[in-house]
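Handout, page 2. Input:
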Amino acid sequence: MSLFKKIFSSQKKETLDKGLEKTKTTFFSKLSKAVAGKSKVDDDVLDNLEEVLVSSDVGVNTTLKIIDRIEARVAKDKYMGTDELNSILREEIAALLSETHLGEEREFGIPIDKKPYVIMVVGVNGVGKTTTIGKLAYQFKKQGLKVVLGAADTFRAAAIDQLQVWADRVDVPIVKQKMGSDPASVAFDTLSSAVTQDADVVIIDTAGRLHNKVNLMNELTKVKRVMQKVVDDTPHEVLLVLDGSTGQNAFEQAKQFTKATEVTALAVTKLDGTAKGGVVIGISDQFQIPVKYIGVGEGIEDLQVFNKYEFVDSFFNIEN
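Output:
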């Protein structure tokens, strides 16, 4: 149990607890019904638990992994009371997340050997992509890093305007062209400007449409290729933003984008307004891509670096 005895930032933890409140309340309400009248974890309890996890948007494949792990522990221990189920679930979900999240990032930061560090952000419209970029820019700037934004989602004028609003709010430079411009051209100009300004971080917004996967794939490949003319091995990170409140739809989006481009990290937004927080566990496990950031509120500080222990601790409402 000692791995949960970490010292969390109290303010961050309070925000996380509050953000996951709906998920926790719904999950434990279902869990209580699943074990009602039972003192021992048996096949019926496991069947009910499977239903609870699937209906909490953990996903079928991940749910089956969790059930298998618990079955193995029941077989090993010969007897397991339902009163132990919370702590067992907590431990097994943390262990599952550990397979994807090998290390833990505690703060917003970038590798010191990459300058500028280039992040290409992908995701469908409406998931909180532009807001996530703005909040990331704010956090990086707060760390003393010089940030440049690139408005390469030229498909919608609103996307360019929204990113401009965030650039003004955070007070960081933005490179943009008019709507309909070549996204790769915007990316090229952004990196060229960042190199000239000796910037530390570049965040490139990209178009968020999935109606034609081939076009999306071609466009993202072209953006990458053109960026590499300015800075080798870019982008250093491809961040897929998913709306946690859409549950299973987020799985489908992850599936489509991981086919279209090499996604290296995930940001799951809008967890504060939903009971579907279990989607974080399922997506991380199913796609074997680490969740790097989570959005747990509307405030500029409410984008957090994901930490599996903090998340599981909040999810299960552990008493410290």
